[in-house]
Design goal:
3 helices; 6-stranded antiparallel beta sheet; Thiol Ester Dehydrase, Chain A; 19% helix; 161 residues; alpha+beta; FAS1-like_DH_region
Amino acid sequence: MTSDTTPHDDLPRMGQGLFWQDLQVGQRWRTFRRTVTEADLVAFINATGMLEAIFIDADHAGGAIPGRPVPGALTYAFIEGFILQSMIQGTGLAMLELHQKILAPVLVGDSIEAVVEVTGVRPTSKGNRAVVSSLITVFNQRREPVMEYTAVRLLAGRTAT
């Protein structure tokens, strides 16, 4: 087996996100779906310190939500992980603004996915980046919306060759 030491800069990068020039208002994508597990909940509350009784006590009597609810921040983090791994990997420069609405609880055992719709693309004066707005709607396995948020991000553009 020989080792190829020549530069590979001309090869497309696997998993590369979209440049702002690839986007147009109205484009939509669906993320993968993921089931939220008890281990996810425990790891998240331990990492964040969100030690609220409804998250750490499976038999909490004072909870208004039946089942094992998870923090909205966990739902958001999972969906942003999908978006990062697919749409903005290597091209996302900054999250500029975020407006979020929690529409329904997500419970341990629920499977979540999202629809991402581009709602705005505004190139900056430099031209090598743009402000991209999107509406992200998160659904559970019953196709009920559980979260909706708008994200305004700074995305890189293609460099001139």
